[in-house]
Amino acid sequence: MKKYNLLAAILLAIFLMTNIAYSADSAKPEQKQNKKQELKAKISDKNEYINQDWWSRFKDPVLSGYINKSSNSNYDLKIASLKVLEAQALARESLGKEFPLLNLGSDFSRNKTSDNVQVASSTQSSYLFPLNVNYELDLWRKNRDKTIQKGKDLEIANFDEKALFISLNSSIASAYFNVINIDKQLELQKKIVSIRKEILNLTKENYKYGLSNSTEVTLAEKSLTEAESALSDIGKYQVIFLNQLAALTSDTVDNSLSLERTSIDNIELPENLPENFKNEVIQKRPDILKAEAELQKSRIDVSLAKKDFLPDITLTGQFGFNSNTFSKSFNWDSYVLSGGVGLLETVFSGGQRRYRLKAEKYQYEQMLQRYQKTILTSFQEVNDSLAMLKFDTQKDINNLNRIDHEKDNLYSINIKYENGAISYLDTLQYKERVLTLEKEQTQSKTDCFIDSLSLYKAVGGSL
Fold this sequence. Notes:
The chain contains 13 helices and five strands. By secondary structure, it is α+β, with helices and mostly antiparallel strands. It folds into two domains: 37 residues; 378 residues, Up-down Bundle (Outer membrane efflux proteins (OEP)), CATH 1.20.1600. Strands 1, 2, 3, 4 and 5 form a five-stranded antiparallel sheet that branches. α8 packs antiparallel against α11. The longest helix is centred in the middle third of the chain and has 67 residues.
């Protein structure tokens, strides 16, 4: 009876060992919570991707708050972080394949020979408890190269994650700047509508007394309708940009209209932005680093394709106990020991290896061309962003000067009105002109903000 209890214990131990993967999938709630905390920590570790110094230069805590919030709540970032964790696991799996494979098992068989053969019939039992060792001798560094290859996949996943951080932060800031731009545009457009209503009323009043004709009334009505139509369009875009900002920050669109923001008048373009950049800064862009890692991975693929022409050498070994009776299964007289070396070389594969090598070489050439193209595109984007920022900044300065001149002119117009030299209707038209220029300047200021974001992306967030 004892021997059957021992056999049951051994079989139970083997069963438990083969179900480790299942037990991992059936993790306890606290273990699943630990995985969530691991993901959260993974995202928090990427705070250097955010570049807080850059966002603080806008001196807007609301914008900085949205940037920080998105890093912990955005679903795309969570997916990217999970891909990094996946690549880490696959890299460690590949590393594990460089070590010997150990298998512990048991085997029970009972054979009976036929009564119709020319030997005495018999029934024989066999109890086998082997420990098997299998190791692929990595003389050609195939397994090592595969592990390095998986390491390149991990690098690529990290660069994709950083690129996503930069892109997402830029998109959030862009949506935010568009929102506060629209807020100001809406405020100014309401004033323009109010002025045009007043102009229409005065024109109608003058028409009653013969001081205006019907054409002037019609033109005033048309101008008011155009202003109200423009106001409606601005209101539409305000909702769109607010919904976009809410989605980017993983907030509900139901609360988009109440999203916190400051006035565009309270934000200024960061000072002392560089007028040029060293090559070393640009070459740290995540897309360039990713293209370089892909090129290196492709080179490893070529190497592995060449090594497919070399034979596989496998070392095998076995140690265990084998006996015809269970009671003697674990006696030292029952131990068995074996070892061997296997060599396998493919003699004919229909040209598969040769054409695979050619394909990998072509793939490497593609990666090389893509890498060079990425570098050229990067320098172009940086230069384009610098040019746009330079010219749009000058345009904004010109608009500010135009507003100052127009306000001086409006001041003179008000003095003339107070002295009875011109009508109140004329002053309203000049007031509208100032508001129209302020709308243009608000847009040019926003363009400068967007240009700075383009520059931030172009240099890989290294401003």
